[in-house]
Amino acid sequence: MPAATALPAISVNPSFSQRLAGLDQAQKMRLAVGIVLFVVIGVVGLVMGRQAEWRVLYANLADKDGGAIVAQLTTMNVPYKIADGGGAILVPADRVYNTRLQLASQGLPKGSVTGFELMDSANRFGMTQFQERLTFQRGLEGELTRSIQALSSVQSARVHLALPNQNGFFREQQRPSASVVVGMNAGRSLDRGQLAGIVHLVSASVPEMDPKSVSVLDDTGKLLSTPPDGEVGMGGDAQQLQYVQQIEQLYSKRILDILEPVVGRQNVRAQVTAELDFSQTESTSELFKPNQTPDAIAIRSQQLMESTNAGTGAATGVPGAVTNQPPGPTAAPINGAAQTPVAANGANAAAGGGRKESIINYEVDKTVRVVRGSTGMVKRISAAVVLNHQTNTDAKGKTTTVPLTDAQLEKMTALVRETIGFNKDRGDSVNVVNAAFTSDKLKEESLAVWQQPELLDLARSFAWPVGTLLFGALVLLGAIRPALKVMAQPVPARQATASASLDAIESDQPERPLLAAPSMASNQPAEPTASDIALEDARKLTRDNPAAVANIVKTWINGEAPA
To answer: In the CATH scheme, what is the code of domain 54-105?
Structure first.
């Protein structure tokens, strides 16, 4: 029997199916679940990425306007969705503004308010004058309603006009009036300027309408406009309270603006209480001045009486034009002693035989003054200011807080007094106190970076793509990659000898000696292999060393035992 010869190392390159078959049950299950999840994540990400983001086109629409808009969107081939409850109509985010412009060009939404477009269909035959007036009034009310609804604080509005019939008698004509009911948005209100603007808008749109004839109410029935003179209502009291609050906030802001640059933004607090006088007063006075100088006097009336002696038939005096002139104004004082009037020719009344009397009435100087006191005058101001302790840092970096000195407090008090216009005679008071603030700092009124609406919208737009990518990467690295790593491990080379091959062929189970041979030839631990790998090794041995295989077959035929 020939000696046993060493066989060359056999390298095995199994296929993917063979590698997959070499995995255990847990690895196969993990790989299958990972592949399924990865495919599902990819499909969901693709669908959600292609799905359009929906935005609100219009909200809080009337049923009539909502139906008209939906019909128009169907005609325009614009996809839409109706929110739960029918409160809003949603369209894709990239088509919101374009759709609004297209609908606005067609007059949608109308807001259930019809303006002067009623006049377009009013020119029908047989319309009476009353119908024409009523159509015009409805159109004017609709236009005013649209104008009022354009305000940002107003959600809805309704205008009622009372336009009386005018006749040819001026004394019997009646002035028009109007009533406006407004519905406010949540958390919004109308200030005095906006109320005055609404009243002026309505009164200026109707001829001969007095602004006092316009009443403005809110949706709760509260009168917002100022009541007529002589009437007192809750609306006036609310306006007065709002005005007092505005004055107090103005003074508080002035104090903060002057002290914050000195002590720091979070180191000062100020509160101002203003006492205002809203009483209306009116006074009338007549003043009489004493007698004025002769050049400033005014003659009201003058009467001259002249009588002559009947027994004297001859005229007296110097003939000529001077005699026929009327006497000039007297030069005697107004309140002086009575004097005998002098004739025009300078002679006495006795000498001329006649008598003359002159009566002059002067205007009396009188001044009538009517004074009306203004409302909202400041009667008294009280200011309370609290300053925090000042912070000092030593050379070692240690921070300490120390109270302000009396000189510093005096300077701060002087600044506050000058800021509010301190008046001692009016009874104003200013108190500046120094105290240590607590460590809790007030939060900034501005929103944090992560609470900005723009950043939130951007995060929502990237939520699905980024989330899908991260989840897919987690499944890939956690389930699929470990299984692929096991499958990619190289199969160790197998070393066979002639005797080992003979034993493998002569044995009843040839797979086991062939499987054990690599572990005996190498120091590596044995790994479980499939039966097809052992069969492949036997075939490779037959191709590489046919002489050895022929000797083995010859031994089997002769019935010899292996050496």
So the answer is: 3.30.70
